[in-house]
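INFO  loader      accepted 1 record
INFO  loader      residues=568
INFO  predictor   begin
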Amino acid sequence: MIQVLYKTTILFSANNIASYATWTLMAYLTTVWKLNLTYAAVIMNVFKGSVQLMPIAMQFIIDTCGSTGHFFMLLFTSISYSIGLGLLTMSTPTVTGTCSQYKPECIGEEQRKLFFTALALIAVGMSGFNVSAQKFHSIQVDGERLANASYDVNCCFWSCGILTVYIIPAVLILVISYVKPWWLQFGLAAVFSLFATVLFATGLSEYDVVEDLRQKGSPLTDIFRVFVASTFKMFHECPANPDELYQGNTDSTTARLIHTPLLRYFDKAAIILPTTSLTDQQRKKWRLCSVTEVEETKRMIHLIPTCLCFIVCGVVSSVGDTYFLEQATTLNPKFWQLSLPLNFLKLIYDNWQGKDGLSDEDKFPGLRGVGFARFSVAVVVSIICCSTAAIVEFYRLRVVKRNGLIDKPDEVVPMSMLWMIPQFVLLGYLDRNTERGSYLLLEDIIGPSMKKGYLGHVVSAVSGVGIIASSFCVFVVDMVTKKGGKISWFQDSLNKSRLDYYYLFLAFLCAVNFGFFLLMQKVCKCWEAQLEEIRDNIDYDSHTSLESQTLIEASNNVDDDQIQQFSG
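INFO  predictor   done
INFO  writer      dumping tokens
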């Protein structure tokens, strides 16, 4: 048992090390490749956004392919992780470059291909880890097995956990943070990831496999079926009585949803055609769907207005490892006699993001509106974060101008990097409240089949859309600000750009987004009120029909007694 625990736990260490090694890629692109500020930010936003978007597709593959399971997904993505980090190491000039110096002329076409291929593979590895690692690990380390284990095994497990999750990553992260050569930073992460992958693969015959990991299809397939079936029946009229729609198999164990008069177009997927027998139509699953499947699809569509509010928070979150990081690279890292690495800021961000700890259900049992309060706090914090970043950047530009460093982007600005701590603290707290608040808000809307395995991935995907959309936001701002021959807010270097104006624009965008969020909450409450009214009417009708049936039966019994007395 102890070997199994060690082999699964070490993957978490490899992921932590890789995340710290790749967090400074923005600085690598602007200092070594000498890329334009916005171009480098686009690359990082697409990379980070893809990591957030892909878990839905990977969960779909796990649910659809019965032979896959979380083990094979985790093994495949770990291999992708290791290869990606290896290619990233090879893309550095000192390994395969035309020269051994970290200069743009040493970056050739081969290095660019290796770099972008590495980013794609690392994104696949990170996404697969986010989908399968925690679930697979929880299967191996369940409470019953640990309770039955001996005291020595438990002590050994916790010792291995502390060693592999905290001590080893802390040492390697510290080494990666202070090592100057880029190839060594990426190479250390690649070697440890390869070691963790090989060690994990050797436990193939030792891991426990739970049957629930091989589910009977994905609920996303049912949603696709509703779109296809309603399209095929787009010219058919929906029956006036919803009871005439296809209700599904009566022996189904899944929870049934009540029909709602909203988005009636999708009801066409449940229309039973009179020209064909019901048995034949049931065989064609892409032509006939049940009312429950249609209602699941409607609920997914109702998520869209609320999810639009979360996208803006994703746009704000995207500046953390792009523009915030780029600001930090220009500042003085000295703190007394100690030189602080860039990863010091990521450590602060991770601590305030605080993914571990008690859930809101444990903190506020039975309390309603926690999701609304969480997201409201997130919006307020996003406004404060952007405003704080604007003030710090405004002061930094004043120092740059005062010391004549506008045309010297490689010079260190005589301003401490500790000025960046408040905005990274606020950014971590923002992402923490956005994730938890959006999860609780969507939990009340999403259907029961999607809630079980996809709700967390939906929240992650919405954040990913916001991160990628930030590139479009920068493009629009750039086009508008340079209109009429004016100077754009975004220039080739940070010292010539006006990121303080952009941060203030994001603060204004967050304020507008909060108003839109309140409007969407009002719309959702009206929709919930309609659903509640429909449920009450259905309960009343069923109760009335039951009472009527009872009275009829009692009347029949009275009539029979009178007939018998008359006959007697």
